[in-house]
Amino acid sequence: MSSSQFNQDEQYDEETLTIVDENGRSLPCYIEQSLEIDSMTYLLLIPVDIPVVIMTIDNDSEDEVEAAMLDDDAEIAEIFSNAKAVLAEQNLFLHHTAYTLTATGELPPIEEDQILTLDADDEDADSEELQSLSYFFHANQKYGIYTPLTPLLFFARYDLENRLELVSPDQENLLPILEELLSEE
What we know:
This protein is mainly β and 185 residues long. It contains two helices and 13 strands; from the N terminus they run ββββββαβββββββα. The strands form two sheets. Strands 5, 6, 7, 8, 9, 10 and 11 form a seven-stranded antiparallel β-sheet that branches. Strands 1-2-3-4-12-13 form a six-stranded antiparallel β-sheet, covered by helices on one side.
């Protein structure tokens, strides 16, 4: 993950930070956990709003669905107004925020037939379950809007100059610190 700009957001309580990406988009996050080690503060952050992903959907057969996550900013920008409109029909409001799309509003109840399970490419990784929110078409392509059923977490730390940056657990062998933050929940 790349270095980012973080600001304490006065709109929320003291337990939130706002992440700002390289494109100037922001993402308010709750501070789930914090841990100080060797004069460095490590944080586990979770978005305030509902994380949302858009996927291209191809029905090759009745039994099998091919789904691919859309992560190209240009493609997202092209279909964003359509996605925003179909979610608005459900009183969900789509936002193009830093690092993930988010929605505000109340999610519909989870129904078993509305869950998409994505198998992980890596055999060591778990599969991911997503709740379907809506579908739409754009230029003869079917798209699905989903929210992950597991929380979206960001791992960050304050550096020695008190700047906050997103970090990867693989970076500088930070995995034990992330595991400790996760075990405190």
